[in-house]
Amino acid sequence: MPAIVYAFVVSSRQLVASPDAAAAALVASSLGGLALAGSADYLTLAFAQAILCGIMFALTSVLRLGFLANFLSKPILIGFVGGLALDILVSQIAKMLGVKIDSGGEFVDKVSGLISGLGTTNLTSLAMSVAAVLVLVLGRRFASAVPWALIVLIGATILVVTADLKDAGVAVLGHVDAGAPSFTWPVISWTLWLQLIPSAIALTLVTMGEGLLVSRSYGEKRGYPTSPNRDLMAFGVSNFAAGVSGGFAIGSSTSRTAAMDQAGSRTQLPSVIVGVGTLLLMLFGTSLLENVPSPAIGAIVAVAVIPLLGISEFRSLWKLEKFEFLVGAACFLGALLLGPIAGIVIAFVLSLINLARRAANPAVDILSANDSPDSSLLPLEPTVTMTAPGVIVLRFAAPIFFANVGVLEDAARKAVTRAGAGSVSHLVFDLEAVTDIDVTGAEGFGELLTWLKEKSIQVHYSRMRPEIRDRLAHFDLIEGTTSFGTNRAAIAAFADPQRQPQRQPQEE
């Protein structure tokens, strides 16, 4: 149901929505503490969680909140998904070894349970897991188009049946109910609905960040338009369909989308075919699933989630930007040790801190006569080179708001002071990169203008955007100033009437 509904609503021609590894890991880690994995209550909670995700996706679409995905930067996604992947990997390793652990427990408990249970390792399960991993890894390396996971499942199942490996202690999937999906509404208490909201928010945000990015990238790659808000609505209706038809929350699958793109698919028809094929399997083929061995399932899932650990991505972040690496590492540890909800909270807090850190320290340049920035505002520089005799052109490369107006004030005062008493008669603010100013920023900027007036320095604005002119006028910061365009020679000429500007064709 989710695959078919999604195919008819989404704007992307290629993005595949499915229960991907990241979503599965988040669902498992968030529900493990609320109910026993595999129980009826566990399934009911999963259905309810999917419905909540559907509602949240629909709301983000109606309210046009797709921009929230921009707060999940690459380091945050790498760390968050990596932490969940490692948590689920421990459970799969236990399956591969035939060791019983509490898959719904905390990560530390899982690791300690796995280590203490190594003495109970089932050698037959271990041998099957090693063989499955080798087939998956080597097969994908030399023949990536072949469905090796399906081959491993079929081969391992045949081996279990023919060699009667259940008697040797190999765990199997067990009975799977046959029949078409029944449309039901999960009946749980309001307290449980409320407990599911944080994890549903986390699922929505992670899926939103990855899904919109992949949708946009393939649209640009193949030359067709996409609509972010329509894609969010598609995720909404598909998750709602999953919840009412017996499925858990779904997200976007980057790997399946890439496989379909490589196969030449440019429509959503494969998703419809998958939906129909799954229905046929549920109607006529569930008996084939009963003897699927758990070690083989664990091997398949383990191989699938290992790339989600983000090892190569973390290595790249360490080389490119240490702070971004620390952000990713904090999200990784938060999601792993504190849980997915705490992980997503840490992710947003770090995003805001990183945003504030960058916005609070914008570039401030003194422009030279040929428009190149001069780095003379560094604290250790004893003097400042003026743009022209008596003129300083100062460029502030950010919106002026409460967190950075002090930087602007300090830079302007230093520029005037270090130029020497009485040396500066005109200060030009190049506002090309200034897109907004708030109340606190306007107050601080007004104090700076008053200080410049006391120094008998005439203030001018250069390259103002119309909306900034209106904002400055609204805050009474226009009176007593003049405006100029981009020609630096003209600025020098007005400062010194005897100086004739050297006009060049490109400047004109």
UniProtKB/TrEMBL annotation:
Q: Does the keyword Endoplasmic reticulum apply?
A: no
Membrane topology of the entry: Multi-pass membrane protein
- Annotated compartments: Membrane
Q: Report TM segments.
A: 42-63, 75-94, 114-138, 145-163, 183-206, 269-289, 295-314, 326-353, 386-408
Q: Give UniProt keywords alphabetically.
A: Membrane, Transmembrane, Transmembrane helix
Pfam families tied to this protein? STAS, Sulfate_transp
Q: Gene3D superfamilies this protein is in?
A: STAS domain
Question: Where in this chain does the record put each STAS domain?
Answer: 381-494
The signal peptide, as residue positions, is none
Q: What is this protein called?
A: Sulfate permease
Organismal lineage: Bacteria, Bacillati, Actinomycetota, Actinomycetes, Micrococcales
Q: Which gene encodes it?
A: sulP
